[in-house]
Amino acid sequence: MVTKERALTESEFHYGDCQRTFGPRGGATTRQERWRRNGATKTWTTRPWAFSVPIKHGLSSYSYLTEVSAREFHALADCPLSEPQIAVTTTDCRDDSKERLN
Q: How many CB atoms lie within 10 A of CB 53?
């Protein structure tokens, strides 16, 4: 969920649940719907809880992030996929402790 404070400062928002799945051969597929800020945040003095952020997705999709739709979005910093991936390393089968004879 995006709060008013986050809406004032963040430049990228994700819609829905971000997921990363791994296939049978180890390939990772990431599903993220990324929306970025397309203007200044609008606030009102008569409604201090209300805000409106113009956002853009892709080349031709535009919308507004408001206090009503903020439940469906999360900020880039709050994304569960922003944690670093665990690197898969392979071990070398050679025994380097033995000296090689040349």
A: 27
Round to whole Å and give the CA distance between 102 and 50: 76
Q: Which residue has the higher pLDDT, 94 or 35?
A: 35
The reported pTM is 0.71
Distance, in Å, from the CA atom of 6 to the CA atom of 82, rounded to the nearest integer, reads 17
Three-class SS state of 88: coil
What's the CA gap between 89 and 91, in Å, rounded? 7
For the chain, domain boundaries: 4-82
CA distance 64 to 55: 6
What's the token pair of residue 101? Answer: 């004879």
